[in-house]
Records
---
Amino acid sequence: SMNHPFGGVTIVGAVNTQQAKSLEGATSASVSIDAALAALDESGVDRNDIDGVAGETSDDVVYALGLGPVWESRTGLGIRAIVESALAIKAGLCNTVLMVAGRAGTYTEHASTAPWTRASSEFSSAVGMYTAVDFALLARRHMAVYGTRPEHFARAASLIRNNGHVNPEAVFYGKGPYSPADVLASRMVADPFHLLDCCITSEGGCAIVLTSAERAKDLRRTPVQILGAGIDHMGRPHHNPPSWDLRSSEQGIPNGYVGR
C-alpha cells in the first residue's frame, strides 16, 4: 500500500566502499565521494537527477559531483536520515536523494584512547571516563536490574564478530571464529567488558539512493520499498551529563540517560 507515511519511497542503490581499520591517504570526504559515485553506478541514477543529498559529508559530495541546487540535510547516516530523506521526497522537496557517509583519517593516534573519549569530555561525563567505562557502568546497571551476566554480553559480541568473520567486505573477515569463551578469556578493559566485547574504530564510506516508486520503474535494480520506520531520543549523550533532576515525559527516565 502507498497510503502509509513512507508509501511510494524506495531504495534503489546501497553500497559500501572498502572497509578497513585504516585506509592510507583517505579522508572522510574522499571515501564519501567514492561511495556516492558507486551508488549512482549501481542504481543507474544519473547524477543530474540527484536533487537531494543527506549526510554529514553532504557538502563535500555536492561540491565534488557538481550537484545543485539540492535539498540538503546534514543528519548523520542511519535510520534518522532515511526517515528525513523519505519524508522530504513525500513532501515534494526533492525527488531523488543521495545519502552519504564516510570516516577516514580522523583517528591516527592508535596508541591512545580515541579523541572523543579523552579529558575534553570531562564535564559531560565523570572525570576520567572513556567510552568503554561509560558503557561498562550502563552494563552494570543492566546486570543489577535484569540479572544479565557477562556470558550474555559475550554471546552477543561473539555473534557480531562471527558475522564479520564470514563477510568478505568486513574488517574482521577471516579473523574468527570466536566463541563466547574466547570473549570472556580476553583481557578485561572495563568490568564487565573484555577486549573482545569492545568494538574497534574503522574507516570506509557508504551511500544509499532513495527515490519515488514511479521513478524507480525506469532504473536497473528492483527497488526496496520502505514500509515503516521509528526512532526515539532521550537527550543528547556525551554532550551534557545525565540530568537526574530533569525527567523525560516517558516513565520518569532522567533526561540525557543513555543505554536505554
Note: The chain has a mean pLDDT of 85.
---
Amino acid sequence: GITNAISVVDGTVYSADIEQQTIWKFPAAGLGITQQPTPFAEVPGCRGLFIDELGFIWVVSTVQPQLRKYTGDGTFEPVFENIVFEFPQQVCVTVEGTAYVTDSAAGTVWRIERGSQPEKWLTGAPLISPVGIAQQGRSFVISDPKANSVFRVSKDARIELIIAGPPLTPS
C-alpha cells in the first residue's frame, strides 16, 4: 500500500498504510523474499503513529476515534471519542503522556493531555499546514510543506524557524 508513518521498537517496525488502512508490523532485520508483513491492526483512515516510552502504539486517524492507544497485542482504547481534527497527519507523545497531533487542514498542532479533550496548542502563522512532528530534547520539530519550512517549538509554544526553503509559487 502507501506507507505514511513508521516507528520502530524492540526490533519491530510498525508501518501505517493509508491505502490498505492497516498498521503492519515486521522485523527490523527485514523479511525474506517470500515473507509478508503481519497485520497489527485495521485502522480506517490511519495516518500517523508513534510508540511511546511504555511501548503503547498511538495511531491518529481521520475517522472516529481519531486518536487510539494500542497495546502490543493489537487491542486499543480511544483517547477521546468525538471528531475534532480536520485532517490529522502525525502524532508525538511525550514521556509525561501528552500527545501532540499535527492537523494540516486546520493549520494547527493539537495538544491532548492525559484524560483531557484536545486543545489547539499552535495555530495560525507562521504555520500553514503542519504535517510532521518529532520531539527533540525539550522541544519539538515541526515540518510544514506549505510554509516550506521546519520549525522548532518549545513546550511553552515559542516558535523558531530553523529551515526555510524558497517561497513556493502556485503551479
Note: The chain has a mean pLDDT of 93.
